[in-house]
Amino acid sequence: MELLTIDIAHVLAGALLLTSFMLLYQDRMSGLINIYTLHAVILSLSVAWQAYYQDAPHLYFTACIAAIFKALIIPFSLRRIMKRLGIHRTVEVVGGVGITMLIGIFLVALSLVVMLPATASADPLSREDIAFALAIVLLGLLMMVTRRNAVSQIIGFMSLENGLVLAAAGANGMPLVVEISVAFSILIAFIVIGIFLFRIRERFDNVDLSELDRVRGGRS
Amino acid sequence: MTLLFNLMAQSLQMLLVLALAPLLIGFVRKLKARLLRRKGPPIIQPWLDLIRLLRKEVVLAENASWLYRSAPYMIFAMIWVAASLVPTFATGLTFSWSADLIAIIALLGSARFFLALAGMDIGTSFGGIGSSREAMFGSLAEPATIMIVFTVSFVAGTTQLSEIAAYMVANMELRASVGMALVALLIVAIAENGRIPVDNPATHLELTMVHEAMVLEYSGRYLALIELASALKLLLYISLIACVFFPVGLASHDAGAEAMMIGLCAYVLKLAIGGGALALFETTTAKMRIFRVPDFLGAGLMLGLLATLLVFVTRSL
Fold this sequence. Notes:
The structure holds two protein chains of two kinds.
Chain A: H1 2-25, H2 29-54, H3 57-85, H4 97-118, H5 124-146, H6 150-170, H7 176-204, H8 211-216
Chain B: H1 2-35, H2 45-55, H3 66-85, E1 90-91, H4 101-121, H5 125-156, H6 161-170, H7 176-192, H8 211-214, H9 220-245, E2 251-252, H10 257-284, H11 293-311
Parallel strand pairs in B: 1-2
Helix pairs in contact in B: 1-3, 1-9, 1-10, 2-9, 3-4, 3-9, 4-5, 5-7, 5-11, 7-9, 7-11, 9-10
Membrane topology (chain B): Multi-pass membrane protein
Pfam families (chain B): NADHdh
Main location (chain B): membrane
């Protein structure tokens, strides 16, 4: 029974990692938002399972916040932003998909190599959850680096934040206040980024961030 | 007496895969037609086609060498052997000591090699295109398969397929790495069998065809053998997925005739589910551009790598 509980937590964390890779692989805006929704749903399932495993009822609350904000409100407003900005096209990727995937694998291996020895004394579930969470954070960063389009960079940022929530849920005894404040600060960040997005678009007529280089007087 | 029974079970398996493979193709075609609200040919149509092809005269190109004529026999033999080594209704059959996963992959790889050679032998441009595309896909699909094999055999502690299946029956457990290996194997199976997102088995469109381009010059009994071999390959992949990841109902070799009958029913049911899922998937997706296929297969390779990495994480072996 004990083993099965740990197994389910692992499968959920592994599925979260898999969806992170699907985000890296996806090359259409609408598909990207759908997979991000899936990412958030799996995250809330995973947090709810942690709540059951650790017998910590406040984590159910975190799972609800994740489900409502990340799986409903943010995808909905991302779709609206997409419609208002008129971008339905494919996502421009810096470098090929294959190379990005390979770098992603290296990042996962790196986070496993770093995290597993560093947390050797922790209990097995939270220890491996933290390794997965670091991998998801690094993949989110990678996605932000390899995309030109600002909307897909937002999705990278949001998936990075999902990794943080996974780590926070895995750590025993994280107070509720911290989780709620993190969730709300992310929401505020999302709103601020959204406003910036419209400003960028007003200025340059598209949301390709390589345009910013021109203003700064950099390359290109 | 036991030996006789074991030999009978083994030969039953060999004949079973041979008999079921064209029926599986027919079932998938029928289901696809029904999903498109068409009537579709009867399920035994592939067998009728094969018999008709066997009776036809062979037309050979003038510059066809011995390789071209012997390749169909070799391809068919290799794939039939590989398909009858995969446990279908029972584990631990008489020849299962040779059912090593790496050997099965080597058999499939050699069959692919001969198919590609035969495609180039006549010297037509289609054959060359098909062979070069097949080599491109193979160079990505085979490392992915090897990674999946590593994952599964790390989990079960052996590369012998029968023992892996027995282990999976005995310890039903959830593992993130095995789940990823399953997804990777599905991707590889779709690509290896030339099913829809990668290659369309029903058309002769020169821009996209891979398998068809290589066998375009074959006729008569050679074509029948090649078609039968490709049907067997589809059956092999479905039974591989069924016996490693869903080994429900699989009998062990000493369980007696009754358990084997249950295993047989479960196997036919699993084939029907696999074929149905394939038909549903093929009607809902569109074929991708040929230059997108390396990305698709690269995702499979990446998942295999990830699965192998995760074996070391979950439960630390």
